[in-house]
Design brief:
The chain is of the alpha+beta class. Helix content is 44%, strand content 25%. It folds into 2 domains: 149 residues, Jelly Rolls, CATH 2.60.120; 105 residues, Homeodomain-like (Arc Repressor Mutant, subunit A, Orthogonal Bundle). The mean pLDDT is 89.
Length: 286
């Protein structure tokens, strides 16, 4: 039976809302792996609603002014200014709240690695995060909007990385932790640059503390050095990507920050006890 996917909205109120949406899906490997499908700003007026049936994207709504009702999985949530609503795949409805208007930002994600990634990050269920709006999030959103609007081929890699960065920001924001601020900053820095080559000096510059202090903090709170933690994060991400059979091992290595596939295979074997190829075979036999 074919699943019916469609979007309906309040046609009477539609002429009175304002939307500035940007969307672009180039036929590239990065876009198929992890991609910001759309991003933009909206102003809903009183009585406006939009309903998505079997929505295939991960939908993020961030309220700036007014409020927004979200209907999902039989429940209703009211988003207030500064709050983020994360809506998983499926059917949902957005409606102007009792304030009579809503000014918001939105962004949607798709890709072969997305369902695996959100499961690992525990972003695979509906959630609301208060006090989410920050300068960093606004800058990330603005950059994604700008690049989607430009539609330049040279921006493809950056957009895929920005999609990962945005999701990591959501995941880390919702975590409650007593880690020192320097450690939190360094972890964020690693997560947001997992695709790139990083050194202990890079981390030291980002956190504003010495390499020795940073190493001491990591050993004290996480029982490993900063580089060991970075490698473990990369291998965990690689394990998630390898579950998607359509992503070649060479591409997985590159997406995890390895320019040399041999180095990637060696690190992978140290952490898992098997090579990436053997890991894939075990998945097929499971």
């Amino acid at each position: 039976m074919k699943i019916k996917r469609d979007t309906t909205y309040n046609q009477n109120a539609k002429p009175f809302i304002r939307e500035n949406m940007n969307s672009w899906i180039p036929p590239t490997f990065q876009a198929m792996t992890l991609w910001p499908v759309f991003a933009g700003d909206s102003r809903y007026t009183k009585g406006y609603w939009v309903s998505h049936n079997h929505f295939e994207n991960l939908d993020i709504q961030i309220v700036q002014e007014g409020n927004l009702k979200i209907y999902y999985d039989g429940g209703i949530s009211l988003l207030k200014p500064g709050e983020l609503g994360l809506i998983p795949f499926g059917s949902h409805k957005l409606e102007t709240g009792p304030a009579g208007y809503c000014v918001k930002k939105c962004i949607g994600f798709s890709g072969m690695a997305l369902k695996i990634l959100v499961k690992i990050l525990e972003l695979d269920s509906f959630l609301v995060i208060p006090d989410f709006v920050s300068r960093k999030i606004v800058e990330l959103h603005e950059r994604i909007c700008f690049l989607l609007h430009e539609k330049k081929q040279e921006s493809v890699s950056e957009l895929s990385i920005l999609a990962y960065t945005f999701l990591m920001e959501i995941a880390t924001t919702r975590q409650t932790t007593a880690l020192p601020q320097e450690l939190i900053v360094c972890r964020h820095f690693m997560e947001q640059n997992i695709f790139q080559k990083l050194t202990l000096e890079d981390m030291s510059l980002e956190t504003g503390c010495s390499k020795a202090t940073l190493t001491r903090l990591f050993k004290k709170h996480l029982n490993m050095t900063p580089i060991q933690f970075l490698i473990s994060q990369r291998i965990n991400y690689a394990k998630n990507l390898l579950q998607n059979k359509s992503i070649p091992i060479k591409e997985v290595a590159a997406l995890c920050g390895y320019q040399n596939q041999l180095y990637f295979s060696n690190d992978f074997r140290k952490h898992t006890g098997c090579s990436p190829r053997e890991f894939c075979k075990r998945l097929q036999g499971a």
